[in-house]
Amino acid sequence: LPGNPFRQDGLAPPLILTDASYVDDCLFPVMPEDPRDLVSQVAEVTAIVHRHFSARMLKLNWKIGKTAAMLSYRGPGSRQLRVDFQIKQEQAIPVTLCTGEAVVVHAVCVYKHMGGILDSHRCIGPELRHRAASAWGAYRPIAHKMLADRRLQESTRFNLGLARVSSKLFFNAEVWSAIPPERFGPVSVIYHR
Questions:
Q1: Which tens digit of pLDDT belongs to each residue from 10-31?
Q2: Is the CA virtual torsion 66, 136, 185, 156 positive or negative?
Q3: Which of 13, 128, 158, 177 has the maximum number of C-beta atoms within 10 A of its C-beta?
Q4: 173-193 in b/e burial notation, b at 16+ Cβ within 10 A?
Q5: Which residue has the higher pLDDT, 87 or 147?
Q6: pTM of structure
Q7: For position 91, what pLDDT does the model report?
Q8: DSSP assignment of the chain, as one string?
Q9: HEC string of 65-80?
Q10: Confidence of residue 103 (pLDDT cuts 50, 70, 90)
Q11: Nearest by Cα to 38 from 1, 3, 75
C-alpha cells in the first residue's frame, strides 16, 4: 500500500501487507452509571470504533453474528429496561456512522466465540453444556474403535483420548470463573468416561 495508514506523519515507507497484523476480534466494554444509558452509549461507542477502524482502512462486518452487542443490565430498574429493550427495539441498536450511514448492531443474549459461549447473564451453564456436547461428539467416533482396542498400548489410548476429547472438553477453561463443583455435572460425566 502506498504510505502507511498507521503513521500520520507522512515519513513512513510504503506498508507491505505482510507487515500488518489485524486483530479480527475485539471487545469494548460499556458500563454507564445509569442502566438507562446503556443502549445509547453502545451506539456511541460503536460509532467511535467504526470511525477509528475506517481511518485505518479496516472494515466492520455488520452481518448478524459478526458485530454484536451483548447487553447485561445491572442496577435499579434493570429488569424492566431489559424487557423494554427486547420488546420495543427487537434486539437491535440503531447506529449512525461518521459517514452518515445508518446501520444496526444486533444485540444477543448468547455469543459463540472461538468455540466458547458467552452468556449475557454471566452464567457458565451454557458453556459447560457446550463443552460436554463437543467432547462427547469427539469421543463417540473413537470410543469403540480406538479407546477400547486392547491391541493399542494403554498409554497410546490415553493420549488419543486426551488429544481428541480433553482438548474439546477443557477448551477456554482458563477463563472460566470460580465454578461450584455441583455445576460441573456435564463436564464430569464426559471426563470420567
A1: 665 554 545 445 556 777 888 8
A2: negative
A3: 128
A4: eeeeeeeeeeeeebbeebeee
A5: 147
A6: 0.63
A7: 79
A8: --S-TT-SSS-SPPPPGGG-------------SSGGGHHHHHHHHHHHHHHHHHHTT-----STTTSEE-----STTHHHHHHHHHHHSTTEEEEE-TTS-EEEEEE-SEEEETTEEEETT--SHHHHHHHHHHHHHHHHHHIIIIIT-TTS-HHHHHHHHIIIIIHHHTTTGGG-----GGGGHHHHHHHH-
A9: CCCEECCCCCCCCHHH
A10: very high
A11: 75
Angle (nearest 5°) at CA 165 between 164 and 171: 100
Rounded to whole angstroms, the Cα distance separating 127 from 116 reads 6
- Output the CA–CA distances (angstroms, integers) from residue 137 to 2, 125, 129, in the order listed: 49, 18, 12
User: At residue 74, what is the residue type?
Assistant: R
Calculate the dihedral angle through the C-alpha atoms of 66, 67, 70, 71, rounding to the nearest 10 degrees: -150
Q: Are 94 and 104 in contact (CB under 8 A)?
A: yes
Cα–Cα distance list, 141 to 71, 137, 147, 166, 183 (Å): 38, 7, 10, 14, 27
* Nine cell digits for residue 83: 424487557
CA distances to 41, 56, 120 from 35, in Å: 10, 32, 15
Cα angle 7-12-16, degrees, rounded to a multiple of 5 = 95
